[in-house]
Amino acid sequence: MLEAFAQPLNAATRYCAVFGHPIRHSASPALQNAGLAALGLDWRYVAFEVHPDNLRDAIRGARAMKFIGLNLTVPHKLLAVDMVEVLDESARTWGAVNTIRFEARAKDGVWRPLGYFAESVPGEIRAHGFNTDATGLGRALREDLGMELAGAKVVLLGAGGAGRVAALKLAAENVSQLFLINRTPAKAEALLEEIKHRFPGVFASVGHPGHAVDLVLNATSVGLKPEDNSPLDERQFPLRQARAVYDMIYRPAETALLRAAKAAGCRVANGVGMLLYQGTEALEIWTGRTAPVEVMRKALLNNIYGT
Q1: Domains in the chain and their CATH numbers?
Q2: In the prediction, which pLDDT does 189 show?
Q3: Distance from CA of residue 87 to its chain's centroid?
């Protein structure tokens, strides 16, 4: 999307980035650079492969180079909670960080986003953590699947960073039943205890249900690789017992799980909508301006589907 920018890179260009491991699948650069160009900002958004062991150093490096902000994807969202100086209410509520805004203390003593400073940036800089995944997921489920979460019965695959946020968001939306499935049972059990403590009115359990559900939601990374099989064991829960299936993965656009769900007659959607809405919210956090949603949607769909 760099051709969308009217001016070339120069010494005054500011940067945002996404850190992940892996990262080559990410469509965030296409999404965010389209938004930055539409807003007329001399900023660029790039992607970096960052191993979890190097995440703290990578965040420090971005701060030192006065990046405007960061997005974090698999597997960094839980790790980053302890790597920022300030947590927004969204990050405290959902217990994960997927967006960082770097801020500096202005002459009046107020912490302001680095984008506020047109020229020199003060030396004291902090990292402010946010979470935009939860609102992005809720909006995508409603728009892409027509799913009203209140009262729904849901099977959730995954209890890592994305899975934890999804589980807490679903519980906060008052789903009636939530079934947690994770490769490491201890993680699912820990998440179950948190849900019971914070949302006692929601029935939650670990394991597959013995009846039909409204939604199966994949919050694992299984499906990112072309050779990946479905993350759902249909011997334990056949997809024909699900009304709809949502896979947070958006590349490939159709995972093994979604192919199987289609064949079973389920309504299906991938993670494009979630990426769009969490990304537009992140852009607004960095810029303080309304994101050009339709411009960013078009760029995202073109990047993923070539349309």
Answers
A1: 2-131+274-305 (3.40.50.10860), 135-270 (3.40.50.720)
A2: 97
A3: 16
Alpha-carbon span 37 to 9, nearest angstrom: 12
CA pair distance 281, 284, nearest whole angstrom: 5
Residues 145-159: tens digit of each pLDDT: 999 999 999 999 999
Per the CB < 8 A criterion, the answer to whether 296 and 35 are in contact is yes
Distance CA 91, CA 111 (A): 18
Residues 258-306: tens digit of each pLDDT:
999 999 999 999 999 999 999 999 999 999 999 999 999 999 999 999 8
CA dist 52 → 36, 56, 126, 153 (Å): 28, 8, 21, 34
Structure tokens, 69: 């902000």
DSSP 13: -
Give catalytic residue positions.
77
Q: What is the CA radius of gyration of the chain?
A: 20
Spatial contact of 149 and 141, defined as CB atoms under 8 Å apart? yes
**32 token code pair:** 């965010």
Cβ 70 vs Cβ 59: under 8 Å: yes
pLDDT tens track for 46-87:
999 999 999 999 999 999 999 999 999 989 999 999 999 999
| Kind of pairing between the strands at 14-20 and 69-72 | parallel
Tell me 122's DSSP state.
P
Give SS3 for 106: coil
